[in-house]
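User: Can you write out an input/output pair for a complex, sequences first and structure second?

Assistant: Here is one pair. Inputs:
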Amino acid sequence: MSALTRGESREPLPVPAALVRPTAAELPGRLVPPAFLVLLAVALAAPGLLTAGADPLTADPLNALAAPGAGHWFGTDHLGRDVLARVVYGARHSISIGVAATGLAVTLGVLLGLAAGLSPKWLDEALARSFDVLSTLPELLLALLVVAITGPGTGNVIFAIAVAQIPNYARVIRAQTFVVRRSGYVEQAVTFGRSRLAITARHILPNVLGPIPVLATIGIGQAVIAGSGLSFLGMGPQPPAAEWGAMLSEARNYLRVAWWEAFFPGLAITLTVACLTVVGRRLQRRFEGRTP
Amino acid sequence: MIRRLGAGLAVLWAAATAAYAALLLAPGDTVDILVGDGPDTPEIRADIIADWGLDRPEIVQYLSYLWRLLHGDLGRSYQLQRGVGDVLATQIGPTAQLTLAAAGTGVALAGIIALVTAGRGRWLRGAASAAELASVSVPPFLIGIVLLSLFSFTLGWFPVSGAQGPGALVLPALALGLPIAGVLGQVLRGGLERALEQPFAVTARARGLTERALVARHALRHALIPAVTLAGWFTGTLLGGAVITEVLFGRPGLGQVAMQAVTGRDMPVVMAVVLLSALAYVTISTLLDLAYRAIDPRIRG
Amino acid sequence: MTTTHGEAVPTSAAGGGENVSTVPLAAVADLRVSFGGSEVVRGISLSIAPGECVAIVGESGSGKSVTARTLLGLAGPGSLVRASRFTIAGRDALGFGPREWRALRGRFAGLVLQDALVSLDPLRTVGAEIAEVLAVHEVVPRPRRADRVLELLESVGVPEPELRAGQHPHELSGGLRQRALIASAIAADPELIIADEPTTALDVTVQAQVLRLLAERKAAGAALLLISHDLAVVASIADRILVMREGRIVEEGPARHVLSTPAHPYTRALLAAVPSAASRGTRLATGARRIRSAPNPSAQVLAGTALGHAYGPRRVVDDVSFTLHEGETLGVVGESGSGKTTLARLALGLLEPGHGRVAIARALGPRPDVLVCDEPVSALDVSIQAQVLDLLADLQAEYGTAMLFISHDLGVVHHVADRVLVMKDGRVVEEGDVEEVFTRPRHPYTQALVAAVPTTAV
């Protein structure tokens, strides 16, 4: 019935710096992180392909703390288990904790953030405050509270990390909802007389989700770190399960004699998180470049 | 300001309530949970019921719990047979030492990183970016392990564990401070570079200011604004990291207490640690909020 | 060399004597500035004599701002500056190092940018910003600086300078903070003031005040390099006008010549594209006559009755009524904070009115009957603005669409509207036929608005 056009009463922004095309020297840096993530996917789906048949749990005390070599590329640990196999199979524990915790946190965060952004002011205010309270507790201490009650274990660690990360997503979604609600196209839809539910589902939800893939990619990395930290403290998957944090915890008693027992799981965590972070940030730049 | 204090108190109240709710909602009998792995005698059970008022209506239990907290009574550890307040009081010193040293180290390093690399050539910026990526990708306990094997095991410069003397503080403070330096340094640098592109920077240069004076008098203050908004992350990293660092370096402190309490399922101590952490958060974020107001006059009115 | 120009011969302040007027303050020949291989200034020559006002006019991307900043050695990071001649105050600036440039900045030439809200450091007080210039060039000993800051604020017409010096830019009105920005630019008494879009973000009455202030500085002997996208803004003050397009000067000459008898087609197009009373009923882009159907006064499509809206205690729209007929354009003019945009949102039903009501004629069909335009062209270059306004006029002619057209720009409203509402502080102070209101304004506020509009008429 009526439509709105609106100009911003500002000067146009200065021309942005030209996008830098990768040079030949930078190309490896661009390719390595995605390639590593593919390798991780293989480790998750078919670990046997990468371990040459070695088993992560088979102990061989006679061959304990053997240095990396032909038989064991990453050496063996203090019980004589193959470190390569433990690192590869460990991806299952470490990464599933990160992915599951992030998935749970994103789901709950989106729902709560959307609810806050669309609610009347008092309810929004209450929800926003509860996000604040939740984020007052470092995830590690929140996890301690959860584990103290429920006992250690993978599921409890996932739950603890997810709860701690909800505010990150909920806050972003809430802010996005505010922006989208006031944006031209939602106003157009309102003036065209669309129903509230239709506007939420068709216009608001898809548009507030924009930053989520990026945040979640980086979030998985941070959840992997948090999970390995909890496992390091003995709250995650219980021995003899191969989890990277737990492996490091055991390995620190043998640092003087067998650097490899700590080195490879540490490298695995670091590379995983670094690659997720790099890929996430690259996605972020692409998103920001595309939306005006 | 009164509003700010009110919000802080509300957060503390909510944290206390959440801890209490967690205790009540946990599967199993509340008395069993409070006994945890400690000695289980009829006398202790009777004490617990009396202390927590478990024979009274739940609303009365809750209110008397809040009332005790208001008076600084954190309850009693039935495993250690001591007041929780006592347990924490003896351990708070080393933790405060560690976190303050780490915060100082982190902030100082971040400032140096930002000032040295802002607006500089590709190599320096690349190195700083790599360091920042490392600081968010390397788990804090791994930083500690690397520092230990390098400086304690290999070079023998610092003790492997304990809290005796300032030497014993160096590696833990570094392990806890490095991740902070990496992230904060990146944020500060980004803030500096953005500030240096603002129109007011052009105006200031057009007055004849040197770049150094421009950074010192104008840009640095702008760069602090995004840094101050990291309050929550900063506190979480410090407190959460303190637990891991204390365990790794065998330092006494609240982190060790918390770990033992969790392992021994000593709920009163765990709840008190949670509350203490919320208190630290509220204190730090209130202080940083005050700093924010001092830095940015636009949000005062 | 200098051009002859009527009234702007420098007198006392610049030192006097023929000698001075023959040595330009700044002179460049074949100036080229490029950023990473793309040249944004492509061989321009320009000279500014003491006491003279030179204006560079062009649309965004024309290279006018870069040219101005290059004269201060501030072309920006990654820039490459070349010129066959580049002298500042008689010295060869091509060999200047950072130290030489710094000595000139602020002292020899002061810079005034657009929008003091971001061009002054928002975290520092206005007084501190002005004092900085005094400190850098040590023009006033420290104990005297505070007094000098107050004198400067006073000299640019800031009332209550003691109070204002201690305030931050956001605490000042747009006009006052732009004056403060000018005070900081002239603090070290430079011979040249470079003003880059100094009035662009300002309301029309404030714009007139700032232009008057710059004219005063010129009368006091300072030379002025004025950069603007708006020919009308520079018309009243410039001695010479340079028209820039895509890094080149397409036309230059005495202001009167350029404005009254433009030689280059681009200058003519720029002048023709400025919407105004004279351009009513023509296509801006081509100047051709436009046939339009008269509004249909019997078919009312949108009406607001006694509308009001308040944010807290502040009534942003207060007892406003309007009607809009088929094929009609109702202009709404007013300065920032007058309640225009709130009115638009009330008209669209995006806001619930505190009181009053909005009646919309029911219409069946895919096309809107009413188009509400809220500052649709305010951020656009004049040529793009012309295209948008032509397009809106075409829509109206073809479909009989009614338009509620909100703008701070009186020229635009005069060009498009049939009737006009003049708003101030949420109320309508005057309304009527656009021709009537703008040529014979009755309300003092409307009179002030109309008087403040810069024109290209000479």
